[in-house]
Write a sequence for this structure.
């Protein structure tokens, strides 16, 4: 397995864990009041001033759709933090699933979408498995259809959020040194199963190609210029780096979760901090919004390009274990 591609996943895990306590803070004054500046892993505080759990609803049709389980009582309440039971350095649900995917592919020696969906269902329906309160729309939509009796491969919805990229670094890391074309095909199949939105699929393929270019020796800015021009202009990004991060990500690009804004915002932060992994994930966390899922792109690209400091990877609540001498094989 390519050590650099493993760093793509580790970087994503670190960025998610760093952003976790301030995830979906859209009021930056509230973020600063509650946490100051996020510079390291922290535990979430309650109440969360921007939480929308009070107007979020999900009712399981039957046991096959019961993915909230012990967390269901907190839905519909005001101020509940999305990740209230997670600890400092712990990953949110989507990145816990990414780590599960990585280990599943490595242990199995290959990938199949049907096999993964079966593992996904097992993970989500196991009581207490992830301890995260918030379960994204894509999961709710999938398990509503699953509870209706639809085949696993027909349960995905047209979800257009950047959370759809959460598993891309895991697939790249598990894929080892496989050709870029095979990695692209695998990612397309995997992301398409639960999300099935053309812009999410396009963004996922862009992330694979950017990472592929970096793996071949390109700098972050070279890779983004070459492979992500339909998302962000390198010429414009070069001019924006002189502006405050919170202006570019907040004024030029929304901090929200929709892929059409979140993807260029993520690429911009990776561009700006191309040689500074810590600076990049810190900036991402502190601009607010959907920082955990932007962090998948920012942390993944920067971790791949320059490595992840051991004090960050080792401080994760569940570090990714070293697996030297093991080569991932993806069919």
């Amino acid at each position: 397995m390519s050590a650099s591609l493993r760093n793509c996943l580790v970087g994503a895990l670190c960025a998610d864990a760093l952003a976790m306590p301030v995830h979906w803070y859209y009021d930056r004054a509230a973020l600063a009041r509650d946490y100051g500046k996020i510079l390291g892993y922290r535990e979430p505080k309650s109440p969360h001033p921007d939480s929308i759990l009070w107007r979020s609803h999900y009712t399981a049709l039957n046991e096959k759709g019961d993915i909230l389980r012990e967390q269901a009582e907190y839905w519909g309440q005001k101020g509940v933090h999305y990740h209230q039971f997670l600890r400092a350095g712990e990953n949110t649900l989507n990145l816990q699933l990414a780590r599960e995917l990585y280990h599943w592919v490595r242990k199995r020696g290959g990938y199949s979408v049907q096999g993964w969906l079966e593992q996904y269902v097992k993970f989500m329906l196991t009581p207490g498995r992830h301890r995260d309160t918030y379960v994204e729309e894509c999961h709710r939509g999938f398990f509503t259809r699953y509870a209706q009796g639809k085949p696993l491969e027909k349960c995905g919805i047209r979800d257009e959020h950047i959370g759809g990229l959460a598993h891309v670094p895991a697939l790249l890391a598990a894929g080892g040194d496989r050709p870029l074309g095979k990695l692209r095909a695998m990612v397309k199949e995997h992301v398409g199963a639960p999300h099935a939105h053309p812009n999410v699929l396009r963004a996922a393929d862009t992330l694979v190609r950017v990472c592929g270019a970096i793996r071949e020796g390109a700098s972050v800015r070279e890779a983004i210029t070459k492979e992500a021009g339909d998302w962000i202009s390198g010429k414009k990004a070069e001019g924006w780096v002189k502006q405050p991060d919170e202006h570019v990500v907040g004024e030029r690009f929304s901090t929200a979760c929709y892929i059409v804004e979140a993807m260029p915002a993520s690429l911009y932060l990776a561009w700006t901090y191309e040689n500074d992994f810590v600076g990049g994930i810190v900036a991402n966390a502190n601009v607010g919004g959907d920082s955990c899922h932007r962090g998948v792109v920012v942390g993944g690209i920067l971790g791949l390009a320059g490595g992840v400091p051991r004090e960050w990877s080792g401080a994760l609540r569940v570090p990714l274990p070293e697996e030297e001498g093991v080569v991932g094989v993806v069919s």
Notes: The longest helix spans residues 198-215.
